[in-house]
Specification:
The chain is built from seven helices and two strands, in the order ββααααααα. With 169 residues, the protein is mostly helical. It folds into two domains: 79 residues, RNA polymerase sigma factor, region 2, helix turn helix motif (Rna Polymerase Sigma Factor, Chain: A, Orthogonal Bundle), CATH 1.10.1740.10; 70 residues, Orthogonal Bundle (Arc Repressor Mutant, subunit A). Strands 1-2 form a two-stranded antiparallel ribbon. Helix 1 crosses helix 2, helix 2 crosses helix 3 and helix 6 crosses helix 7.
């Protein structure tokens, strides 16, 4: 992958393009445009090239590139104010609110369920979903452990999902 102590970017792109395309495809949904996904792809290899002099030759290039792509996906969702679903976060009405933008009844019901939460849980929901703060940031802001924030988010989602389901939605 190197020639004359320089990385051979063309060879790396040729070898890892299908893999990075799969990472991007599996890590995104229809809220990102083709152009957004193309930008993430190009930026992944640009960042590799930009950091070429600081690379540790013992690292797995495949893992490194996948990590860059995942980070860029996350940043794109944050920038677009949409919500990134990672494995920890179940596929539920809160994290998929953008899919229901035209469904005013669901949004109203969801807002009512959120208003019925404890004040601390409302703050967590607002910081995580509406302010796009990380769990780490929320923990600092609310002076809680990250585990506590994650647990509360999990329970909030589970409760709201159950209540929406019981309500026929």
């Amino acid at each position: 992958m190197t020639k004359n102590n320089e990385i051979d970017l063309d060879k790396i792109i040729e070898e890892f393009a299908p893999y990075i395309t799969t990472v991007i495809k599996n890590g995104t949904d229809s809220t990102l445009t083709f152009e957004d996904k193309e930008e993430i792809f190009a930026d992944t290899f640009f960042i590799l090239w930009k950091n070429r002099n600081r690379l540790n030759i013992n690292i797995s290039l495949k893992s490194y590139l996948a990590g860059i792509a995942r980070h860029l996906i996350k940043e794109k969702y944050r920038k677009n104010k949409t919500f990134y679903n990672i494995d920890d976060y179940e596929n539920d009405p809160i994290s998929n609110i953008n899919m229901y933008e035209n469904d005013r009844e669901l949004i109203y019901d969801l807002e009512q369920k959120i208003k019925g939460l404890k004040e601390i849980d409302i703050q967590i929901v607002n910081l995580f979903y509406y302010s796009s703060r990380t769990i780490k940031d929320i923990a600092k802001i609310l002076n809680m452990s990250e585990l506590n924030v994650k647990t509360r988010l999990h329970r909030i989602r589970k409760k709201i999902k159950r209540e929406l389901k019981d309500g026929g939605i």
